[in-house]
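job 3f2a | input accepted
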Amino acid sequence: MKTLSFRIAVIVAIVTAIAVSRHSHAAPAMPAAAEANRYAASIAPAERFEIRGVLVERHGSGGRPLILIPGLASGSWAWQDTIRAFAGEHTIYVLTLPGFDGRAPAGPNPMANARAAVEELIASRHLDQPVIVGHSLGGTLGLAVAEDRPAQIKGVVSIDGLPVMPGTEDMPAAARAQAAQRIQTAIAQSAPAAFAAQQQAYMRTVGVMDMAKADDLAKLSSRSDPASVAQYAADDLQLDLRPGLKNIAAPVLLLAPYLDLDAEAQTQAQAGQQPVTEAVKLDYYRSLMEGTPKLQVAGVAPSRHFAMLDQPQQVIAAIRAFLKTL
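job 3f2a | predicted structure (326 res):
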């Protein structure tokens, strides 16, 4: 089911990015933190190495390998609860993509490079039937790798990561490319203060439910390189993995965050339209995943986009239950 709320969300994100970049001189900086950022500390990995510019941090040993891929402008800080939950029984590889979380800027075609890096990680480390757990853009990468290497992937857990950008599924390729160029130009030209303000606005309206948490997380996501974030966002917008979903042999668990009082629902209500229910959102996500042979779609509520931070225990329980079925 294709609903107006998702199209509104895409339009709002584009307008916000453009507005921030155009008015960067007036963008307020986030207030200085009175104490250390509670989400900045990370568990020390057993090993750190790079593949194609992607930072890989290894935790734990034994068990089925898990590959954790964070989303746009995110680093390993997004997965700390997940690492704690599974490092005792699995070997975990946490990726940070080029340009994110203070990493050196991404090169050309960053999504294709990241896709190749995940596949090279699996091959070079001889990972036996890993499970890929990705958030947002990371979930999309997990689906892409499962399409490319169907015999090598045991399962995919995607947290709000889809094969096509919601709201753009009916756009012609040319229109999608034009929209991607507009987004890339808008974000890439953001001054540091403007980019930080945009990250704060995003975290407060789309990212997480708690405003204090949103502000702390925005300080971390704003460490990313705006031009790299713009490149990834443009690449992601132009990507459509739906034709290849039929090739995925592994079971796929798609976790859909839902918050009935979020900005999208309020916007619809103000426009005199019926807000989207959780059931409607799950049906819509299923429609975008149509053709996936072994698909489960489950809600995480109440939660915004970063479900593993809003509802860590729900997400951990869902992943654990999924792993037991493999």
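job 3f2a | Residues 4-15+44-324 form a domain with the Rossmann fold fold (CATH 3.40.50.1820).
job 3f2a | closed
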